[in-house]
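Q&A log
Question type: sequence-to-structure
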Amino acid sequence: MEKHTKIKTILVAVDFTEKTDSATTLAAHMARRHNARVILFHNLMNFYIIDRTGRQLVGEDTVSKHYKEAENTLELMREHLQKMYSDITFHKIIGNDHIVNSINKIIDSESVDIVITGTAGKQGLREFILGSSSYQILTGIKCSVLMMPEDSYQYKFEKILVPIRVLEKLDEKLEISKLIAEKNNGFIGLLGISGDEHFRDIRKAFIKIRESLKGDEQEHYASFVVSNDKAVEISKASKDAEFDLIILNYQDEEGWKSFFSENFFKQIINNTSVPLLFFKDGEAINPGPEPTGYDITLPFPG
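Response status: OK
Response body:
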């Protein structure tokens, strides 16, 4: 996203479940406001057997059948959306790699600015250990990610919460926050939040951004909180003032504290019910241990 001042291409991850519906509708509304195009993306996983003759695709006929079914369903979705939003251009793409690899390839080839993915809310133990598809997308792809709760119908962002909690790329984050506020005729709620560490630096950055918003005559209000439970405070602030969107830097707090403890990302996802935009600037992370399907290695005879 050049200088983070434009959103021209939006990719929405589609899995044909209910949690996709709100994400797809949000993509259409955002595309209309930003004069952007929408890519409807669905990913299929393949399954392989590895023997002494090499890697072979399991059930090629079945895979081909599933691919055609997915392509037909995605095309029906595209046609339906095109009729509803005739002023927006919709494309469809099906991937067959690890979902993160597939999306990153499209980000590069199609100059995607933002990825929207639906989330079902609180995650169970399996998703916590292995990572849900939405969480893999958040942690693995190269551009900003907007996570849309499946039970949210908030398609316009008139009240935008912008926490200042880390120092990385604040200017770029401010630019995209101002862009979204402008396109939605909204205002920015600036929330400075710091624990015991880096208090002076974060406070200084908060004041600088507050003054910048004043200079731009951007409608906003600002407050500052001292707390080590940043995810809890951000969630509370969003609920108390009924914000429509939270814009966060892609920066974790304290990493993984323990195997069963939640990091900042999972805390904020599990404790908020509004869309979350994680600002990211080419920061791709390892997509995790889940493979592109499953390899079944057969032993050599004798």
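Response note: Residues 123-131, 255-260, 286-302 have pLDDT under 50 and may be disordered.
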